[in-house]
Amino acid sequence: MSSLHQSWYEAGARERIAALVDAGSFTEYVGPERRETSPHLGIFDLPAQFDDGIVVGAATVDGTPILIAAQEGRFMGGAFGEVHGAKLTGLLRAAKALNRDVVIAFDTGGVRLQEANAGEIAIAEIMRAVTEARIAGVRVVGLIGGRAGCYGGGGLIAGCCSTLIISEQGRISVTGPEVIETNKGVEEFDSRDRALVWRTMGGKHRTLIGGADLFVDDDAAAFRAAMLAALVRPAKAGSVRNASSVPFGRGERPGLDLATLDAEQDRLERRIARFGDAADATDIWRTLGIDDARAIPDMPSAAFATLAAQYRESADDAR
Amino acid sequence: MRQWNTRKQMREERIAAGRGFATGKLVDPETLVDFLEAVLRPGDRVCLEGDNQKQADVLAKGLAAMDPARIHDLHMVQSGVVLPEHLDVFDSGIAKRLDFSYSGPQSARIARMLFGGKIELGAIHTYLELFARYFVDLTPQVALIAAVSADRHGNLYTGPNTEDTPTVVEATSFGSGLVIAQVGEIVDTLPRVDIPGDQVHFVLDAGRPFYVEPLFTRDPAAMTETQILTAMLAIKGLYQPYGVRRLNHGIGFNTAAIELLLPTYGEKLGLKGKICTHWALNPHPTLIPAIEAGWVEQVHCFGSEVGMEDYLAARPDIFFTGPDGSLRSNRAFSQTAGLYACDMFIGSTLQIDLAGHSSTITANRIAGFGGAPNMGSDARGRRHPSAPWLQAGAEADPDTAAPLRRGRKLVVQIGETFGEGNAPLFVEKLGALELAEKLDLDLAPIMVYADDTTHIVTEEGIANLLLCRNADEREQAIRGVAGFTEIGRGRDKAMVERLRERKIIQRPEDLGIDPLDANRNMLAARSIKDLMLASGGLYRPPSRFRNW
C-alpha cells in the first residue's frame, strides 16, 4: 500500500525536486556550499541552515527547461526570512528575463517571526516578481501538500500563481488555525479539531471553491504528472475553458492582464455572495450541490476528483 | 450479642436516604449533589471509577461540588487520577487519603499536592494490585461508576469500554457497599447486560456518554527512523530468536513501529504465524495492518480505543465480543492474562539506571504505574511451559537441571538513547529515588525492577541481561547500548567488546541490519488515514488525529 509510492507530504525539499524534474538535470543556485545563512537567527541563539530553508535552481521536465524552488518545511516551518525570500525573488526575476516557467513547491507557515520585517518585505517582493513574470507570459505553478501547509505570506503568494496543485493533506490559508483561535476564541475556531482545520483550509475544500486547480494524491509521481499538465496550460486561461486540453506552444501564451484580474475580482465577489453566510465548509459544499457533503472528507481521491470536476467552482477564467 | 449485618444495614440506610432524590433507582440529575451528600458519610472509602481511558466524569463533577462541611475526609481508592475534579476534592477537603495507580495527565499537579501535604498518600499501585486490595483491605463503601446505558431495573450495558467496572462492582456490591452508575441513556432493552441490576443501587441519566481518552492511538506520521530501527532490532534480535507468539506491547512509538513493521519487515523475514499471534493488548489502531494481513489470531483487551468500535465488532474472530457484537473489555482479566499468559512485555520508559531499574517518574511528575509493572514482571506463580519462557530461563540459569529450572518472562525496555526534549534515557540515579527521598516513601516508585528486566533495546543495539553473570557485566551491557549519553560514554570499551563476542550486546550489523534501511517506507501505514484505509473504513479516527 503506502510503501509503493513516495509520499509528497513526508518528502523534504530536495526529495521533492528530485521527484519532479528529469534525473540529473537540476542545477542549484546559491546552494548550501555558499553558506548564505540568515543574518537574524543567530541573535536569538537559533541554528541556521546553509540553504536557509529553500532550494532554488534550474532543471528540465520532459526536456523543457524550467526554474524551480522548493521550501524545506522542516527548517523553521518553511518560513520566509531575508535570504530565503531573496532566493525566491531572484529566481522569479530570472524567470521573467529568461521567459521560463517556474514551479514552486510551497511548504511554509508564513513569515519567520524572528526576521519579521525582512520577511514581510520579501513576501511583497515575491508577489511583485510573480506578477511581473506572469504579465510577461511566464507560468508560475504552485505545489501544495507538505506538513507546514501554505500559510501567511505563502498563502498570498499562492494566490498570485497561474496554477495551484494540491493534495488532500495540503492546506492554504493566510491566517493559521492557532492565530484564529487566539484572536477570535475557541468557539469561533478550535485549532485542535484537526478535521475542522482540514475541512476549512485543506486540499479538498480549496479545490471545491476554486482556491486550487488540480487535485492529486499524496504521491510525488502524481504531483509531477499534474505539474506537467499545468505547464501546458495557457499562462492565462482567458476565454479558454477546459484549458488543460488545449496546449499552448511557447511564445503564444497570453500573459496576465487587467481582464484576468477583473474576472478574478468578479469570481471572489460571487463567492462571497453565494457562501458568505455559511458557518461551515460542509454548508458551502451543499450549496455547490453536493448532497452528501459530510462524506467528502473520507472520500478516496479518485472518487473526489470525479465529484469535484462536476461541482467545483472553477477558477479557470480568472487564473 | 454481636450484630453480623451492620454493613448491610448501613447500606439500607444510605439507600433510604438516597430515595428522597430518586424515582426508584433513577436519580434526579437536578439534585445530584444533594443526593451524593445524602448517601455519603464523612470518612467513607470511595471508588470513583476512572482509569487511563474511561471516566465517570459527571459523578466526579457532582462529588467535587459537595459541601466539604457535610462530606469530608473521604478515602479515595481509584485506578486513575485523571480529571481535574479528582484532585479538586483534595483541595477542598472533601477527600483526604488516596490510593491509586495511574495519574498521567495530572502528574505534575498531584506531585505538587503531595509535596504540599494536601493529599495523604496510601500507596501507588498497579491496576491489578489495587483491584486485589478492593477485595482485602480497601473495599469501597461507595462506588461511582460509568456505563453506556441502563434499563429501568438498573441493569447496565458498559459497551466496548467495560474496563474496570465489573471488578469495582463485584467488590463494592458484594462487600455490602453502595453502587451508583452514571449512564448516557436509559433504554427499554439493553444491547447486552454487562452488570446485573441487582448489584446496582442507583442510576443517574447523565444525558451524554461518559468521557473516554484515546490514549492508545499513535500517529504513524510522527514515527522516526530511529524508532523504526529499534523496532527492526527487536523483531530480528528478539521476536525471531525467541519465537514470541504471546505478548503485550506498551503504548510508545517504538512498539507501535513494531506493529507497523510486521506486515512488511516481518513478512520479509518469513515470521508470519511464528510471532505475535496472541495478544493481551488494547485495540491499537497501529495493529490494524497486521490483523488485516493475517498475522494476528486473538487479542484480549483491557479497554477499548476511541474510533475502533466498528472495526472490533467486524472482527469477532480476533477480539472478544458480546452477543450484541461489540467488544467486551475487562482490565482485571486482561492484566492477569498479561501477567500469566504472555511470554513477553516490551515497552518504552523514561529512565533506566545502571542496574537496569526503570521508571517513568521524575522528581516533579508522578504519573503512577497503570499496568506496566504487572506486564513487565516475571510471574513467580507461573507453571505452564512455553518455548520462549524456557529459552529465557535457560539463558539466565544454565546450570540448574531443566526440570527444576524456572522459565523467565521476556521483559524488554525499548527506546532511543535520547528521548523527548533530548533527555537521556540512561541515568546514574533515577528521579524516582529523589522523589522517594523528598516524600519520605518506603519504596521508590520503580516501574520495572532490574531483576525483571531481561533486555534493553536502543538504536545502538540490544543488551541481553539474562546472559550477564554479575553486576559488572550488567552495568557494562547497559552502558554498551547507551549511545552518547554520559552513561554510554562512561563505558569500558574493551569489556563491551568482550560482551559483544558473547552476544550479550548485539549491534545492528551483528544482526545483519543496515541502519540505512530503517526508513518510513518500511511502515505498513504512514498516516492515520492509511490506518483507516487499511481497516476498510471501519476505523473512524477521532478528529484530533485527522489531517483530512
From TrEMBL, chain A:
Q: Which InterPro entries match?
A: AcCoA_carboxyl_beta, ClpP/crotonase-like_dom_sf, COA_CT_N, Malonate_beta
Q: Pinpoint the CoA carboxyltransferase N-terminal domain residues.
A: 1-239
Annotated keywords: Transferase
The coiled-coil regions, if any, are none
Q: Which GO terms describe its biological process?
A: carbohydrate metabolic process; fatty acid biosynthetic process; malonyl-CoA biosynthetic process
Taxonomically, the superkingdom here is Bacteria
Q: Which GO terms describe its molecular function?
A: acetyl-CoA carboxylase activity; carboxy-lyase activity; transferase activity
Cite the PANTHER family for this sequence. Answer: ACETYL-COENZYME A CARBOXYLASE CARBOXYL TRANSFERASE SUBUNIT BETA, CHLOROPLASTIC, MALONATE DECARBOXYLASE BETA SUBUNIT
**What's this protein's name?**
Malonate decarboxylase beta subunit
Automatic annotation (TrEMBL), chain B:
One Pfam family recorded for the sequence = Mal_decarbox_Al
Q: Which GO terms describe its molecular function?
A: transferase activity
SUPFAM superfamilies (alphabetical): NagB/RpiA/CoA transferase-like (SSF100950)
Return the InterPro entries for the record: MadA, NagB/RpiA_transferase-like
Instruction: Write down the superkingdom of origin.
Output: Bacteria
User: What protein name does the entry list?
Assistant: Malonate decarboxylase alpha subunit
Q: What is the lineage of its organism?
A: Bacteria, Pseudomonadati, Pseudomonadota, Alphaproteobacteria, Sphingomonadales
